[in-house]
Amino acid sequence: MKSISTQIACTGLFILFSYLCFGQSDPELRRPISPEQPMWLIHIDTWNNPDPQKIIDLIPKDILPYVVMNISLSVSHDSETYRFRIAEDGYEIAKSWLRVCAENRVWAVVQHASGSYKHFPDGDLSIYEELYEEFPNLIGFSYAEQSWGFGDQTPINGSWEDRMDHFADLLELSNQHGGYLIVSWTGNRWVQSINPIAMLKRHPGFRSAASRYTENYILCEKYTFKSYLSDMESLCLGSYLSGYAGQYGIRYDDSGWSDGEGNINENFTMATYGAPFLEHVTLTGQTVIDAPELIWRNCFQEVEEEATTDGYTARKWETFPQFDNVSVDLFRKVLDGTVRIPSRQEVIDRTKLVIVNSLDAGGSDDDLYSSPESLFEGLYRMDGDGNLRDNITFFKKTGRYPTIPTVYQLNDDPARSFQLKINKANYANRWSDISDKLAELNELFPEEYTGDLYAGRHENTWVTYNPYKTDQTASASIPFKYNTAERMELSFSRYTAGVIKEFPGHLTVYLSNYDIKLDPSLKTDIIKIYGCTAEPTVTYEDRGDHQGSIVSKNWTDGLLTVTIEHNGPIDLRISCSGTATNRLTDFTPANLVTPFRPPVYIGAHQYEAETFDYKNIAGIIKRGGTDGAIRNYTGQGYLAFGTGAAAAVRDEVTVLKDGTYKLETRYTVQDQDVNTVDLYVNGTKVGTPTFTATSSLNNWGIQTQLIQLVEGANTIAFIANGSRTETLYLDHIVIENTDSSTDGISNNQPPFAFAGKDKTARDEDGD
Description:
Elements: H1 4-22, E1 39-45, H2 52-58, E2 67-72, H3 90-103, E3 108-114, E4 117-118, H4 126-134, E5 138-144, H5 160-177, E6 180-185, H6 196-202, H7 204-212, E7 217-222, H8 229-241, E8 247-251, H9 274-283, E9 288-290, H10 295-298, E10 300-307, E11 313-319, H11 321-335, H12 344-351, E12 353-356, H13 365-369, E13 406-407, E14 420-423, H14 427-430, H15 434-444, E15 450-451, E16 454-458, E17 461-465, E18 474-479, E19 487-492, E20 497-503, E21 506-512, E22 523-530, E23 537-542, E24 550-556, E25 559-566, E26 570-575, E27 605-608, E28 613-615, E29 619-621, E30 638-642, E31 648-655, E32 659-668, E33 677-681, E34 684-687, E35 701-709, E36 712-720, E37 728-737
Parallel strand pairs: 1-2, 1-9, 2-3, 3-5, 5-6, 6-7, 7-8, 8-9, 12-13, 12-14
Antiparallel strand pairs: 3-4, 10-11, 15-18, 16-17, 17-20, 18-19, 19-22, 20-21, 21-26, 22-25, 23-26, 24-25, 27-37, 28-31, 29-30, 30-37, 31-36, 32-35, 32-37, 33-34, 33-36
Helix pairs in contact: 4-5, 5-7, 6-7
């Protein structure tokens, strides 16, 4: 195989040749994103005190190729000193965890900002460029909830104008390195002047950068505030469809939730994620799935430490059942082809209608930057909900109408291909009341079903869900478009969401409703099929890991009734057909392409001491230690090795080839040198390093040792050979190859090994 240096040289010649022949000067994206290569941002979050290696290990192997780790740095801080609490040194945490991701050849982004607060500066790109250049697996920087905190300027935040200048510069830098700027937006009444339309309308520099470096810009809708929910969706979708954002994503958790009584943040269950995920991915083309953000409630939890067979104690993390049965399972439906993500042009063609907000003077912020106030009323807004600031539910009462985007301008030919373009300035004249709007849009979007269940169709795929937040059943009667039987009738319990795919002789049904918080019992959903010429067959398979489902069928007088009692995801196949003719036949099968892995990383590997296995030590400072006396640590904490004669710690390190490596141990100890700790590599003692006393516990020292390692996994241990009068503190170890040659290290980028089910998309029969 070619060495890294040979491949880099070949790649450079190819880029030069392409530039000379075709004028292509922009680097390729490091990790392309498309409907064929969607991306799931899973968080390694400082709030969870994680061991990044163990979080990566928890991700199912069939999901991992599509996952990008989001290194999420909390902006929780002291309001007087502006010292960060949870992530005291965001730069050091990011660099450390990027090294772990790189070692695993896993893609990663860094989320160093929430609202206006940030760990890395606006205006100085040196840190961003340094990280891009050092880490071949880094694909960008994420800015969460860019809708708050831009008032008072402090050492850790700044003005909105400065942030937009920074975004414009960071888009250009990201383009140079093949990376992304990821922004999530959530709206409320006080911040519409900085929403996605305002970003384009008010800041020419950002508008120019978003237009020029569109593929490097990802905009996600974020559920945080309990208002402007339909507007948020409209503006974020609009930026994508109008040609100012290269990809469109969703960031969902309970932050923006209100229950059926309007109570904020009460009675939430991750079962509610099925509706926006399936609707937006299947019908509006979302290719980026971000979060859940609150991973300590919905993804990963640190559980009781476990004892190893040789007497060490190891920290341990597990997934929450809702992560496995909701988040992972929904994404698996993308991977198996049940959910096909449409292209941008497909979404434009299906949507047909766009609102262009070109107002540039006069009126309120809502007038200048938001959707028309009554746009969603009478269409898909739930009855009883309000408009704009009073719009508190994202469920839709009908799938008859597509999500209507509101845009700043139509920036390219696909954007200009919308069938109906309405300028917001003419909105009130065109539709003086709700009935005028309904009359025109009902002609544009003919009725395809009846009932109070949400049902939206693209080609042969129906997205369905119960839109009520109360314990209320929703139902629908849906005439078939592809299947030759007459129709299906659906009755769904609260928070059931599903995808039904029609084929001439059968249906495939996926239902999701996993809930162990509000109602852990089996819930009942019913599917009826009318117009079959023979008794249908029904098969099913439980998905995920949950209580077994009960599926029964009844065939009476030509009517099939399938009753599904379940609390968790389930697949069904119903073989049914009738005598109908002139059914639709054309549809587009999914065609996923497994993303390539990042290039081999030959830089330093870093392992934080707070994640080591240990025995007989003084303790572990797991997060921050911001209230303690010791500062300037890396990662989220450090380890107090203590003074005991039986203390020992260890960790596993991985290297690419046999050889001599430099081991750097970062430590601090006060008043007295420590030489009573032996160093072991793979069970063999290799030395007794001297940890020279540091001037204070805040001044960390580096102890350097050369060691021999073998390709693959190696165990490094520090084991006391006697007691000490002073406590030794360990911060981290760093492993570096002393041989800078890359000979013998392959830099091939094969697709990830796929360990789950065959991911081949369903064929034209749907099998």
